[in-house]
From TrEMBL:
Domain of life: Bacteria
UniProt-recorded name of the protein: Spermidine/putrescine import ATP-binding protein PotA
Natural source organism: Nitrincola nitratireducens
Gene Ontology MF term list: ATP binding; ATP hydrolysis activity; transmembrane transporter activity
Record flagged with keyword Protein biosynthesis: no
Entry EC number(s): 3.6.3.31
């Protein structure tokens, strides 16, 4: 089984959202696997986690997503007992584990660095955690063979880690974490050290493996695409707090804060003024938006994703922006235009398909007409909340 899936073009985040239903898997049980209540962690005066509340169900694949320093890895390490919390509770399968040492918690963990033993064969690496459980030699060999087949590396039992590629080593690390049949699998940015195409292939393998085994999985990542394609639910974190919890579609289509809107995908933020519960003024033009609770005359941001802006012909839509194309970025599956809006001092990013670019004869300096569909126009406070 090769590590590289060759693809001609990388899809946009919007395309990834559109290709998948992004509802929790029907096999996900309603039984609670992990409950986190009021969890906080401080390092001196620095608050890494601030009153985290989270419930994870059996069989779920949950991603902690956020920028560096947001607290996602600290939360994972607290679950594992590697970074004890300052306050709060952690309950796994009805048993409180808040103050148990790591060896007494029921989890397997895979690190970014693989952490394989270089002096042990692949088979011995996978069997390492099983040796203290009193299994017979025959049972050990059977379990190792089962896992080697599961990760597609059967026949490599006698090799050493240095003889494998990075993607293969990460699969071995995954097999070792699963060897003891843990109730919870923790993945700490397991793909970030791999090149782009290997990551795409391996994330498909990890998700398929998780669905096959039904093991509850929590993965830390800063990669939006990984979270969107792998998770049943995404926990978006920033500055030690949870900004939003939801399915990939909920997080992408219905961000609850400007931070989520900007971090997951791309978003245009246009300065506007509220004129009704469902409309704002952008310059002298009124635009219908999703319903909001801001009072009239309040300065806000009208937010719309680049792929949601519609390229139209003159007079085709009631509310149009006249703009000029000042930059074209080729992104494989689509083009990203930067458009200078002539009626206001703003720039708008617009993602279009190649066929649309040909139809509208898009080139630098081209004058275009843009429509902002009401269903795609969100309203956020200008202070970023």
């Amino acid at each position: 089984m090769g590590d590289v899936m060759r693809t001609m073009q990388q899809p946009s985040l919007a395309a990834l959202v559109g290709q998948t239903a992004f509802m929790p898997d029907s096999d996900v049980s309603e039984s609670i696997c992990l409950e986190i209540e009021g969890l906080s962690k401080s390092f001196g005066a620095f608050v890494a986690l601030n009153t985290i509340d989270l419930t994870i169900y059996e069989g779920e694949f949950v991603c902690f997503l956020g920028p560096s320093g947001c607290g996602k890895t600290t939360l994972l390490r607290a679950i594992a007992g590697l970074e004890p919390q300052s306050s709060g509770r952690i309950v796994q399968m009805g048993k409180e584990i808040s103050h148990l040492p790591p060896q007494q918690r029921d989890f397997g963990i895979v690190f970014q660095s693989y952490a394989l033993f270089p002096n042990l064969t692949i088979a011995d690496n996978i069997a390492y955690g099983l040796r203290n459980q009193g299994h017979s030699r025959q049972a050990l060999q059977a379990r190792v063979h089962e896992l080697m087949c599961l990760i597609g590396l059967e026949g490599s039992e006698k090799k050493y880690p240095a003889q494998l590629s990075g993607g293969q080593q990460q699969r071995v690390a995954l097999a070792r974490a699963l060897a003891t049949k843990p109730g919870l699998l923790l993945l700490d940015e397991p793909l970030s050290a791999l090149d782009a195409q290997v990551r795409v292939h391996l994330r498909q393998q990890i998700k398929a493996l998780q669905k096959t085994l039904g093991v509850t999985t929590v993965m830390v990542t800063h990669d939006q695409e990984e979270a969107l394609t792998m998770a049943d639910r995404i926990v978006v974190m920033n500055h030690g707090v949870i900004e939003q919890i939801g399915t990939p579609e909920e997080v992408y289509r219905h961000p609850k804060s400007a931070f989520v809107a900007q971090f997951v995908g791309n978003m245009n933020f246009l300065s506007a003024e509220v004129c009704s519960p469902t409309a704002v003024m952008l310059g002298a033009q009124r635009y219908t938006t999703q319903p909001h609770a801001f009072e009239n005359k309040r300065p806000v941001h009208l937010a719309i994703r680049p792929e949601e802006v519609v390229l139209t012909s003159s007079g085709q839509a009631d509310s149009q922006l006249e703009a000029r194309v000042i930059h074209i970025e080729y992104l494989g599956a689509f083009l990203r235009l930067t458009c200078d809006v002539t009626s206001a001092d703003i720039q708008l990013r617009v993602d279009i398909q190649h066929a649309d670019a040909v139809q509208h004869q898009i080139q630098l300096g081209k004058d275009v007409h843009l429509a902002l569909p009401a269903a795609s126009c969100r309203v956020f406070r200008q202070d970023g909340n």
